[in-house]
Amino acid sequence: TQREVKFANHEATWGGFKEAFTHAYISTFTCEKRMQECLELQQGSLSLHEYVVKFRHLEKYCPHVYTVDADRANKFVRGLKDGLRSQVISSRPRDLDDAIDMATCLEEDWNGMQGTNRRSEFLRSKSRPDMFKRRRSDRVNQGDRFKRQRMPQMSSPTPW
């Protein structure tokens, strides 16, 4: 069956067309299901890129829920993985694009440090920058190279 989308004696706008199209071709059940998915969306095992794509797709189903850019950004940030979420929150994004940019930069830094096995140092250095700067006394001069000395084993775990 064919459905016709009609506009009574007024000029058709893109927003009006999208709304009429949605009502004509997408069921209420589907819209409500996608809206619920958006409200419950978490990054979980998704890559950041996959999470961004899914978030942007699902947010279209609930435009009345996130009417302000700051609300959209807050929802996006609340769905990020814990470590990434806290770093993005501390950066205070203004809008969704800002939050996505910050998360992307932080994840790139995070992934870059993964190869050097320094993730925990990365996270700590963001909150305690002075503690993780190498002291000159921690290095031994070997010609052109510096090699870090091994630190003695502590009998009790560190407090942080």
Strand content: 5-15%
Largest sheet: 2 strands, antiparallel
Continuous helix count? 7
Give the number of DSSP strands.
Answer: 2
What overall form do the CA principal axes indicate?
elongated
Order of helices and strands: HHHHHHHEE
Broad structural category: mainly alpha
| Average pLDDT metric | 73
Could you give the order of strands across the largest sheet? 1-2
Share of helix among residues? 40-55%
Distance between the termini: 66 Å
Rg estimate, integer Å? 24 Å
**Uncertain stretches:** 128-149, 154-160
Describe the structure.
The protein is mainly alpha-helical. It has a domain at 14-117. It is built from seven helices and two strands, in the order αααααααββ. It has helices spanning 14-25, 28-40, 48-59, 69-78, 82-91, 96-114, 119-127; strands at residues 139-142, 145-148. The chain has a two-stranded antiparallel sheet. The model is unreliable at 128-149 and 154-160 (pLDDT under 50).
